[in-house]
Automatic annotation (TrEMBL):
<keyword id="KW-1003">Cell membrane</keyword>
<keyword id="KW-0472">Membrane</keyword>
<keyword id="KW-0378">Hydrolase</keyword>
<keyword id="KW-0488">Methylation</keyword>
<dbReference type="GO" id="GO:0007165">
    <property type="term" value="P:signal transduction"/>
</dbReference>
<dbReference type="GO" id="GO:0003925">
    <property type="term" value="F:G protein activity"/>
</dbReference>
<dbReference type="InterPro" id="IPR005225">
    <property type="entry name" value="Small_GTP-bd"/>
</dbReference>
<dbReference type="InterPro" id="IPR020849">
    <property type="entry name" value="Small_GTPase_Ras-type"/>
</dbReference>
<keyword id="KW-0342">GTP-binding</keyword>
<dbReference type="GO" id="GO:0012505">
    <property type="term" value="C:endomembrane system"/>
</dbReference>
<dbReference type="GO" id="GO:0005886">
    <property type="term" value="C:plasma membrane"/>
</dbReference>
<protein>
    <recommendedName>
        <fullName>small monomeric GTPase</fullName>
        <ecNumber>3.6.5.2</ecNumber>
    </recommendedName>
</protein>
<dbReference type="InterPro" id="IPR027417">
    <property type="entry name" value="P-loop_NTPase"/>
</dbReference>
<dbReference type="GO" id="GO:0005525">
    <property type="term" value="F:GTP binding"/>
</dbReference>
<keyword id="KW-0449">Lipoprotein</keyword>
<dbReference type="Pfam" id="PF00071">
    <property type="entry name" value="Ras"/>
</dbReference>
<dbReference type="InterPro" id="IPR001806">
    <property type="entry name" value="Small_GTPase"/>
</dbReference>
């Protein structure tokens, strides 16, 4: 009888221990499961934050890239100006360009800018290519030579082409009268350049690629023009979002 009682008590104790262990294990499992869920949730949050940060960094990087197209009649010194800006070198004898591209980083008004510069052909014949880069470009440097009256007249045609292809109110443009070092052969007065620039509502410079005169200034001025347009576009976009939300 005593043995039976001991067996029953032993069995009950065993069941209680099993139940207690099971309960503790369940609690531990639940706790671990919660911890795992929390860790997963935190990881997900971190991933979202990383993705957002990555997008912001990409957007910030994109904001630093400026696609610039250099236009003008053949022989006005487009390539010479571009190469002076990029490499601080002047090449008097340069092969006629079909299309060359360069990249140059600069700090303009305390902000880093990566200039993606396309130096184009001086012939109007490359129509398909011309329309393509006019659509892709954010800003344009239109060049003429102060020693060549025809190139000055062509500058107006390039402006008309850009306006037609882009079909927008204001395109960032800088007008450049190059070869200032050949003053004795001047065929286009400074005043004529100023009048044309006023008509374009754009900055105007007379430059010398040979002397590196105002070379940096034309590219920096164009970046400022592009930044101003970007700022206006961003403000308009923000206003539209607010209108939709209201």
């Amino acid at each position: 009888s005593n043995d039976s009682t001991l067996v029953v008590q032993s069995t009950l104790i065993t069941f209680e221990l099993v139940a207690l262990i099971s309960l503790n294990f369940q609690k531990l499992f639940i706790y671990r499961g919660f911890s795992l869920f929390m860790a997963t949730d935190e990881s997900s949050s971190e991933m979202v934050q990383l993705e957002t940060k990555s997008k912001q960094q990409t957007r910030s990087a994109n904001n630093r890239v400026f696609k610039i197209v250099v236009l003008g009649d053949g022989g006005v010194g487009k390539s010479a100006l571009t190469l002076q800006f990029v490499s601080h070198s002047f090449f008097e004898n340069h092969d006629p360009t079909i299309e060359d591209s360069y990249q140059q980083q600069a700090v303009i008004d305390g902000q880093v800018a990566l200039l993606d510069i396309l130096d184009t052909a001086g012939q109007m014949e490359f129509t398909a290519m011309r329309d393509q880069y006019m659509r892709a470009g954010e800003g344009f440097i239109i060049c003429y030579s102060i020693t060549d009256r025809r190139s000055f007249e062509e500058a107006l045609e390039y402006y008309k082409l850009v306006s037609k292809v882009r079909n927008c109110d204001h395109v960032p443009i800088v007008l450049v009268g190059n070869k200032y070092d050949l003053e004795q052969h001047r065929k286009v007065s400074t005043e004529e350049g100023q009048v044309l620039a006023h008509r374009y509502a754009c900055p105007f410079f007379e430059t010398s690629a040979a002397l590196r005169l105002f070379v940096d200034d034309i590219f920096h001025a164009l970046i400022r023009e592009i930044r101003e347009i970007r700022g206006c576009d961003k403000a308009i976009s923000t206003r539209k979002k607010r209108v939709r939300m209201s």
